[in-house]
Specification:
single chain, 10 strands
Length: 323
């Protein structure tokens, strides 16, 4: 069975006119555009996503300082509220909550940890909330990573995400081996399901397919329940998946690729509708992405999503093609 993961927040916020100029990246929008974050989450729900990722990629202490808990809580609450409102709407209409809706759910608002109703309470739910744990430094600069010294920060964020009600702790977009293993280990220690995505970078120059497979094995040894080829160009991701597939790691595999070059054929074609604050991606680009995803599925991927340069329309194309 294929599980659809949602798409990017950072590049989608930028496409809709939100500047993300600080080291906080997408976390900056928690202060400047929380309603738009909620709307994007709602659009991924409407498109057919089943795993919904909180905007916590950069809400750790390094980037957000003393506000890190406040912003992490807010990010989890925003996406969780959209999940719960979607379920309520489908229940009121007598429609199963895991079917694809025809309309976009209402926008959400802030709520504290006590108001968070984790989807983990319903093990049969196909809508799960993932807390994102990103590298302490830049995901594309593994040379800047603190490596093993990242343990304290990853431990704090992982435990707080679990406390806030996340079902999955998703260690996203790691290229430094020691930090990837450290983040996975700390996430797994919470007792929650730990996922990891490993990236070769937008130029595929951060690691080879063989190196990624070797790192994937280390992550599984340290508690990863799923391994994803993440934020690597869509046209190159299959090469990495194949190497990981050869190892028969016994965990779920996935691909959450980026759209590749800005002048390429798989994304980055968002057009802003400022009146309705929605984004319409190039339908042909989204379909091309879905066509590539079929090859990932043929090579064992069961977790499929989209990353930088993609949009809710990419998730809708995946839903139409794969579900």
């Amino acid at each position: 069975m294929i599980t659809l993961v949602d798409g990017p927040l950072g590049t989608e916020l930028i496409a809709r006119g939100v500047p993300l100029d600080s080291d906080q990246w997408s976390a900056e929008a928690l202060s400047t555009a929380p309603d738009l974050i909620s709307q994007i989450h709602a659009e991924y729900l409407s498109a057919g996503a089943q795993v919904h990722t909180a905007n916590t990629f950069r809400t750790g202490p390094t980037h957000c300082g003393t506000r890190w808990r406040e912003l992490t809580q807010q990010a989890v609450s925003l996406v969780n509220k959209q999940i719960q409102e979607y379920k309520q709407q489908k229940s009121a209409k007598g429609t199963p909550a895991d079917s694809r809706p025809s309309e976009t759910p209402r926008r959400g608002s802030k709520a504290g940890p006590k108001a968070t109703n984790s989807t983990a309470s319903d093990p049969k739910s196909q809508h799960r909330l993932a807390g994102s744990i990103g590298p302490v430094a830049d995901c594309y600069r593994p040379d800047l990573s603190p490596g093993l010294k990242s343990q304290s920060e990853h431990r704090e964020l992982a435990h707080y995400l679990a406390q806030c009600g996340c079902d999955i702790l998703f260690c996203e977009t790691f290229a430094n081996s020691d930090e990837a293993v450290t983040a996975v280990r700390e996430a797994a220690k919470t007792g929650h399901e730990a996922w990891v995505s490993l990236t070769a970078g937008p130029e595929t120059n951060l690691m080879s397919p063989r190196a990624m497979a070797t790192l994937a094995a280390r992550c599984v040894e340290n508690g990863a329940a799923s391994v994803v080829v993440g934020c690597t160009p869509a046209t190159s991701s299959l090469n990495y998946l194949r190497e990981i597939e050869k190892l028969n790691l016994g965990v779920a595999l996935g691909v959450i690729a980026n759209a590749g070059p800005i002048n390429g054929d798989y994304g980055w074609h968002s057009v802003i509708d400022r009146e309705n604050m929605t984004t319409t991606a190039d339908a042909t680009a989204a379909q091309r992405y879905a066509d590539l995803a079929q090859h990932w599925v043929d090579h064992g991927a069961t977790l499929i999503g989209a990353c930088c340069g993609c949009s809710p329309q990419h998730i809708a194309a995946l839903a139409n093609r794969l579900k």
